């Protein structure tokens, strides 16, 4: 009977790990959708900026902002693509595996 007291927390802990993993994927998917919305807003602002008459002293660098959004989306996509491949062998961070020193 005392074995059950040790087994129950282990089972509960193992069930919590996939839920945390799914939560991270869900949150990153939400970030991707928000980045899409941000890009659409940026495109609308750029179109309005092109319609405005006269050039101001300051300007917003729409090309750079678009590139930054693209880079963030690419990084998130690459991370999400790596998740199923990692398994239990190690966690990839910045192109390196922990413990591969």
From TrEMBL:
Coiled coil location: 28-55
One Pfam family in the UniProt entry: Plasmid_RAQPRD
Show which residues constitute the signal peptide.
Answer: 1-22
Q: Which InterPro entries match?
A: Uncharacterised_RAQPRD
Q: Which domain of life is it from?
A: Bacteria
Presence of the UniProt keyword Signal in the record? yes
Alphabetically ordered keywords of this record: Coiled coil, Signal
| Record has Signal as a keyword | yes
Output this protein's name: Integrative conjugative element protein, RAQPRD family
């Amino acid at each position: 009977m005392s074995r059950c007291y040790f087994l129950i927390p282990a089972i509960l802990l193992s069930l919590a790990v996939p839920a945390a993993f799914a939560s991270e994927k869900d949150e990153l998917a939400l970030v991707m959708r928000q980045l899409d919305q941000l890009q659409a807003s940026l495109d609308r602002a750029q179109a309005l900026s092109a319609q405005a008459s006269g050039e101001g002293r300051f300007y917003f660098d729409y090309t750079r902002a678009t590139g930054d959004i693209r880079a963030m989306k690419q990084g998130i996509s690459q991370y999400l693509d790596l998740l199923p491949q990692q398994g239990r062998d190690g966690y990839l961070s910045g192109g390196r595996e922990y413990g591969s020193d």
